[in-house]
Amino acid sequence: HDEAQETLRNWIRERFEDLPEFQPGEGVEEEKISVRLSQLKSFLVNPLEAAIKFQLGLSDEDEEDPGLKENEPFLSAFPSDYQILVETLQSTLGEGSVISPDENSFLSNLYEGMAICGETPSGVFGNLDREGFEEAVLDLMGDEGKGFGLASFLQQLGGAEFFQLLQIGESDAWVERTME
After folding, report:
1. Which of 67, 88, 106 represents a domain boundary (last residue)?
2. pLDDT, position 180
3. What's the whole-model pTM score?
4. Same domain (yes/no): 59, 97
5. Which CA distances in Å does 10 have to 5, 13, 15, 24, 109?
6. Residue 112: which of 79, 136, 76 has the closest Cα?
7. Is 163 contained in some domain?
8. Could you list the residue range(s) of the whole structural domain that residue 31 is in?
9. DSSP for 111-147?
10. How many of the other CB atoms lie within 10 Å of CB of 133?
11. Are 51 and 77 in contact, with CB atoms under 8 Å apart?
12. Domain identity same for 101 and 140
C-alpha cells in the first residue's frame, strides 16, 4: 500500500517537476467559514455555479422569497396595544364623547398610522384587530345610564367638590377634566 503511494508520487513528480512536496498538516491554516442553508441548497442543485458564486462572494439574496423576510404582526402586542388604548381613551375623555365607529375617528387614524409603521397588522387582520380595540374602548367607557364604565364614573364625579383631575396612562401624558 505504501509502495503504491510512493510509486504514484514519483510518477507525479516526474510528470510535474514543479510540484512541491506536500505533507498533510504542514503549513495549512485551519479556516472556519460559514455557509447559509440556501448556499448548500444551491450547491446540491448546481455545484460548479455554487462554488464559483461562493468564491467570488456573489449572493442570491434577491432570489429568496420576500415573504420570508416580512415580519408583519397578526395582532397588536405590547406596547402597541397599550398605546392604542391609552391614547384613544385620552382623546375620548378630552373630547367628552365616546368614540365613533367611522373611519375618521381618532382610533382609526392612530391605528392606520401604526399599521404604516408596521406596529399593527394591516388588511383583514388589521380590520379585525381594530374592531377589537373599538369594542374594548366602548366597554371601558361603558354606558352612562347603566352605572358602569368610565362614562358613569365621570358622571358620578360630576357633582363632587374636590375632584379636579383625571389621569390615564403615563404621568407625562394626561388628560385633565375639571368638574364644576
Report:
1. 67
2. 40
3. 0.45
4. no
5. 9, 5, 8, 17, 82
6. 76
7. no
8. 2-67
9. HHHHHHTTSS--HHHHHHHHHHHHHHHHHHH-BTTTT
10. 20
11. no
12. yes
Beta strands in the chain (DSSP E): none
Which of 9-13, 61-65, 88-92, 161-165 has the largest mean confidence? 9-13
How many residues does the structure list for the chain? 180
For 27-84, how does the pLDDT look when each residue is reduced to its tens digit (9 = 90+)?
667 777 788 888 888 889 998 888 888 888 777 665 555 555 566 677 788 888 888 8
SS3 130: helix
- What residues are paired with 148 via a beta bridge? 143
List C-alpha distances in Å: 33 to 36, 50, 65.
10, 15, 25
* Domain shared by 153 and 85, yes or no: yes
Residues 86 and 141 in one domain: yes
Instruction: Give the pLDDT band of residue 175 (cuts 50, 70, 90).
Output: very low
Chain CA centroid to CA 80, Å? 12
Whether 164 is in a domain gets the answer: no
What is the domain count for the chain?
2
> What b-and-e string marks burial along 19-39, b requiring 16 or more CB atoms within 10 Å of the CB?
eeeeeeeeeeeeeeeeeeeeb
Final residue of a domain: which of 42, 67, 92? 67
- The residues facing 143 across adjacent strands are 148
